[in-house]
Amino acid sequence: RLIGIQTLLNFYVTPVEGGTYAHWGASARLAAHGLGRGKHCARVLAALAREFIHTREVLDVNPYGEWNDSMLADEDLANDIRLHLQSLGKEITVDKLVQYLNSPEIRVEHGIDKPVSLTTARRYLDELGYRFTSPKKGQYVDGHERADVVYYRDNVYLPRLFELHKRVRVFDNDGNPIEGPFAVSGHRVIVWYHDESIFYAHDRRRETWYHKDAPATPYQKGEGHSFMVADYFSSDFGWLRDPD
């Protein structure tokens, strides 16, 4: 603070050709620039200098903002971070922001004295409106919640499955069958479940840091050529296999 105030006053009272003599605002901006700060710092230095002239006291004010405020109070730094994040597109990560803020040129330009941690960078992303999530999708919805699908699931499929389970052998936590009569009379039921996994040629990570106001964008349905692995299994016999 003292260096900033002294620099501002020196610029203001020193008649140097091409300088800012007798120009208060220009002197404040030049002093802030010399400290590696921006316009916000210049305004704070100007206020501190005026207070010092009147009271001969230096207020306990941080040119970045309040002492517990983040460096994003510096508008120039915040704007530089926004531009950097925009250049990263969908490849925004906390690590990349840390590397950017800890680079020598950025630390010198904005007067960053201490290394920026992962926790701090994550907080900056949140303050700038970014959220770690999947992208918003446009022009495609699945049919899992269609009225007819929900009706069939709740009124046909699940009731029938629960009814069959009354005649299914039950196992304990160790996989041993629990002997005893079925809940209802009838033949024993063995339920075979179908399991499948689909692997796509263009499988990739979708979650990253997106701005909370980013619009949904149309995307191509499908992930390229796919390979499906499917099988059947039951609690009684395990995976379905050919005896041979």
Automatic annotation (TrEMBL):
It comes from the Eukaryota. This is Uncharacterized protein.
